[in-house]
């Protein structure tokens, strides 16, 4: 029993002896880890020393920094996608609910400036309000119906307007896609009724044009036939000479003399004269 107690006391003594060394090793590891910072691909690092932002950025790779004193904030410089849903009024005062997908990026050379002046939440603080403002300005130029048919123009206007507002800060919009336009139920019903009316009008115009075309074709056919008959008669008239006319009279005479001769004011009944002569 006594021997076991001696061994236990010895073990406890030895463990306490190594505790400071273990703590020192852990401290060294912690300090060493905090002396380095890794900036991932597509990012830049902004150095913050005791709350003060350094006017430069770290590029991709491993960098040395002062442990516990300096902090490296990572800024994503890749193309970022932001989806925004907002309401605006059209030129004809219709409420247009628009869903946009905006692609933008942060200029790596201005990462420190953006973080220093705006903070890490620049998307909420700056980008989203700018999208709402520019969209409302552009939507007011078009009627609700024109907004649907001019999506490409509105997208181009958004890209141009956003870059005019954000480029100086260091944000660049590369593309804006209009995912959807939503209108009130009353407006959608009115548009549908208008489309139906336009289709009926188009059908009526088509039928009218078909009838006109058919009538014109029939009239042209009649004209061609009449012209042909006139040409034939003209040719026939030109070919009739006095001799031909006399010949046709003799050729077609049946041998019976006319029963009546004279004109409308003085007619002579040849039949009665013949009977008297007998």
Written overview of the protein:
- By secondary structure, the protein is α+β, with helices and mostly antiparallel strands.
- Helices cover 55% and strands 25% of the residues.
- The chain has eight helices and ten strands.
- It has helices at residues 2-33, 111-117, 122-139, 144-149, 151-166, 185-239, 242-252, 270-277, and strands at 36-39, 43-49, 52-58, 61-64, 70-76, 80-89, 95-106, 171-182, 260-262, 267-269.
- The strands form four sheets. A three-stranded antiparallel beta sheet has the order 3-2-5, with helices on one face.
- α3 packs across α5.
- The mean pLDDT is 81.
Key words describing this protein structure:
alpha+beta; 55% helix; 10 strands; 278 residues
In short:
By secondary structure, the protein is α+β, with helices and mostly antiparallel strands. It is 55% helix and 25% strand.
SSE inventory with pairings:
Blueprint: H1 2-33, E1 36-39, E2 43-49, E3 52-58, E4 61-64, E5 70-76, E6 80-89, E7 95-106, H2 111-117, H3 122-139, H4 144-149, H5 151-166, E8 171-182, H6 185-239, H7 242-252, E9 260-262, E10 267-269, H8 270-277
Antiparallel strand pairs: 1-4, 2-3, 2-5, 6-7, 7-8, 9-10
Helix pairs in contact: 3-5
- What proportion strand? 15-25%
What value does the Rg take, in angstroms? 52 Å
- In whole angstroms, the N-to-C terminal distance is 192 Å
Shape: rod-shaped
Along the chain, the helix and strand elements come as HEEEEEEEHHHHEHHEEH
Mean pLDDT: 81
């Amino acid at each position: 029993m006594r021997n076991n107690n001696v061994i236990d006391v010895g073990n406890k003594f030895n463990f306490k002896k190594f505790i400071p060394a273990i703590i020192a090793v852990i401290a060294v590891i912690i300090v060493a880890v905090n002396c380095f910072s890794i900036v991932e691909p597509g990012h830049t690092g902004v150095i913050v020393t005791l709350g003060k932002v350094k006017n430069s950025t770290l590029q991709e790779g491993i960098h040395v920094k002062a442990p516990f004193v300096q902090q490296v904030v990572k800024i994503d410089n890749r193309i970022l996608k932001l989806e925004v849903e907002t309401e605006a009024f059209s030129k004809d005062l219709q409420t247009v609910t628009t869903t946009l997908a905006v692609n933008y990026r942060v200029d790596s050379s201005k990462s420190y400036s953006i973080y220093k002046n705006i903070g890490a939440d620049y998307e909420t603080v700056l980008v989203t309000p700018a999208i709402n403002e520019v969209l409302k300005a552009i939507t007011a130029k078009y009627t609700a119906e024109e907004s649907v048919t001019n999506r490409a123009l509105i997208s181009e206007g958004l890209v141009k307007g956003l870059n005019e507002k954000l480029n100086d800060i260091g944000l660049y919009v590369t593309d804006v896609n209009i995912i959807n336009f939503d209108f009130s139920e009353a407006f959608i019903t009115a548009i549908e009724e208008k489309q139906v009316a336009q289709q009926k009008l188009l059908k009526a115009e088509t039928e009218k044009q078909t009838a006109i075309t058919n009538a014109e074709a029939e009239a042209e056919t009649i004209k061609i036939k009449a012209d042909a008959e006139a040409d034939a008669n003209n040719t026939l008239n030109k070919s009739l000479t006095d001799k031909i006319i006399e010949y046709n009279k003799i050729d077609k005479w049946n041998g019976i003399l006319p029963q009546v001769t004279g004109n409308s004011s003085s007619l002579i009944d040849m039949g009665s004269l013949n009977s008297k002569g007998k």
